[in-house]
């Protein structure tokens, strides 16, 4: 539980984040990402995750107003506020990952760098999962399963795709399901293929 001083600091900076229900591990990136992005966007702090995120100038040029006065610099208060908020977002990210992931990002200094490092770690993993699941959908057949078991299996594969960051629309999933049906369902396949209007998953199952 955060200390009263930490809560006061967060309130002063205007950043209040909802805690994640499950810390980031090797197997839950998409669900973790959804929670974290929702919390950060809710705090209006998504700009600190951008790849081109940079603080404003640390110092501002100023003169005293006289014609002979030389330009001097003063600290820019916007810079200090930007850095403070960026560190709040970084702290939230680091606090929402497991120890195995923390070891990969513990040396980064900005929220943007942490986010880029985490996304980079899981990019290839997500792509591989999407390819494997799409192949499973394309090669699936009803076989000896009941129609209920077959449709449940296909919907489960579609859910896996969605959790990997690639949502399948009903029309595409229905195409996979129809392709895997045996000859007993030729009438159903022909009927669905002849429809002008799109068919929903619930209608197809019925």
Report what the structure shows.
This protein has 206 residues and is mainly alpha-helical. It has two domains: 112 residues, no CATH class; 63 residues. The protein has a two-stranded antiparallel sheet. Helix 5 runs antiparallel to helix 6. The longest helix has 29 residues. The protein is elongated and about 95 Å long. The two termini are 50 Å apart. The relative contact order is 0.09. The N terminus is likely disordered.
Pick out its properties.
206 residues; mainly alpha; two-stranded antiparallel sheet; elongated
Low-pLDDT residue intervals, each spanning 5 or more residues: 1-12
Helix content: 55-70%
Count of extended strands: 2
Oligomer: single chain
- Number of helices in the DSSP assignment: 9
- Taking all residues together, what is the mean pLDDT? 85
Order of strands in the sheet with most strands:
1-2
Query: What is the H-and-E element order?
Result: HHEEHHHHHHH
Q: Which secondary-structure class do the elements indicate? A: mainly alpha
Rg, rounded, reads: 26 Å
Q: Name the overall outline.
A: elongated
Give the biggest sheet. Answer: 2 strands, antiparallel
- How many domains, as an integer? 2
DSSP strand content: under 5%
How far is it from the N-terminal to the C-terminal residue, by CA? 50 Å
